[in-house]
Amino acid sequence: MSVVVRFLPDDVTINAEVGEPLLDVADRAGVFIPTGCLMGTCHACTVELDDGDTIRACITSVPPQAELTIHLFSDPTW
Question: Under 8 Å CB-to-CB from 77, ≥6 apart: which residues?
């Protein structure tokens, strides 16, 4: 199943497969998501979904839904 993933604020859209690691999708789209530990502990890769939930991109894969919108944070420390 293909999912449309949209990265804001730059409005970059790409198709991804369910289960594909979110960091891989961002990389293919040319979108930078900072990482630290790659285990979800440091929270460097925290992004926000449309519903206000926050997730850690390094340990999250694309869920089975039609569209996924990711709001990127701008953190100058990363």
Answer: none
What pTM does this model have?
0.89
Contacts of residue 65, defined as CB under 8 A and 6 or more positions apart, other chains included, come to 3
Write out the CATH class of domain 2-71.
alpha beta
| Segment 26-38, tens digit of pLDDT | 999 999 999 999 9
Residue 26: burial class (beta carbons within 10 Å; 0-12, 13-18, 19+): buried
Question: What are the residue boundaries of the structural domains of the chain, listed by start?
Answer: 2-71
Chain centre distance of CA 70? 6
